[in-house]
């Protein structure tokens, strides 16, 4: 049994097939925490599961073991005890769920007696998700300060987890490529060593990695999904076989590339190579990734700091071109009433019940005097008129 212990919130495919894998390989016993009864029961009774990496070179399978699972809804006290004696806490629950896992983490920190601080890393597709989680924890704790109790490090993650085969159990099929970049400066400031996790790329400044990933991988992936769905495509790979969709995705990523080059000083050549690599990755037919899976949660994807409005707003502020991004935003607005996706239903309701001005403000968080606002407002009106 390992002396190192990791608590991971979120027992889904990213939790098991990305974070859990690399914590396991780093020698941690992993305690998965979730609120889904059936999932927790399955993890508890299954001693191992397989991760299969998929690429054009074939498949490679590895077996994961040395883990447990707890239900934070019915066994909160046990989760608190585990956090109190853990070395690291990670999560992959979705940005909106961070506020709900914060209270139990706060209780765990309050119960700690260890001299060494707890490492906390939120592995979410959102900018500075760990800082967001810290804010929620601070609102729920009686501690005067979290300094000395925990080190909070933001990260950028990148790995595509497609739809899984039926009856796959805990096994996860996942793409071969991955990136996990974590800032090391919080550890330096706290005067503690960084965790020994070989999969992590530790950096001083995370901003370029976060924005390059979010505004290339996530923007390109979602753009493909929204255009693909409206063209009747079932998978991302099928959508990118369509020359018009592929060209459109490249035009969108040309715009986000101009922001990344302008803002972060990344060379045009390096960014072009990165874009080409990303488009090649998401076009991988072996992933069998559905457009509806990738397009789900349109409200989050249309929010202020996310993959469309985020880069488009910064481009508008710099006086740079954002026409292709506007087209992607319009297609995202059409992702309505998709089976199994509550946000697509809420999106339809917002566009039906609110004025164009209200919907634009509520969906995007843009100020009415922002240089992007009027352009998005026009696209919202266009989509609203279609359903009348």
Question: Concise description?
Answer:
The protein has 388 residues and is α/β, with parallel strands linked by helices. The protein has 17 helices and twelve strands. The longest helix is centred in the middle third of the chain and has 24 residues, at 207-230.
Question: What can you see in these coordinates?
Answer:
With 388 residues, this protein is of the alpha/beta class. It is built from 17 helices and twelve strands. Helices cover 50% and strands 15% of the residues. A six-stranded parallel sheet has the order 5-2-1-6-7-8, with helices on both faces. The longest helix is centred in the middle third of the chain and has 24 residues, at 207-230. The chain starts with a strand and ends with a helix.
Task: Describe the secondary-structure layout.
Elements: E1 4-9, H1 13-25, E2 28-34, H2 37-45, E3 49-55, E4 58-64, E5 67-71, H3 76-84, E6 88-91, H4 98-111, E7 118-122, H5 129-140, E8 150-152, E9 155-158, E10 172-175, E11 179-183, H6 185-190, E12 201-203, H7 207-230, H8 236-241, H9 243-264, H10 268-282, H11 291-295, H12 298-301, H13 309-318, H14 323-333, H15 342-353, H16 356-364, H17 373-386
Parallel strand pairs: 1-2, 1-6, 2-5, 3-10, 6-7, 7-8, 11-12
Antiparallel strand pairs: 3-4, 9-11
Helix pairs in contact: 3-4, 4-5, 7-9, 7-10, 7-14, 9-10, 9-13, 9-14, 14-17, 16-17
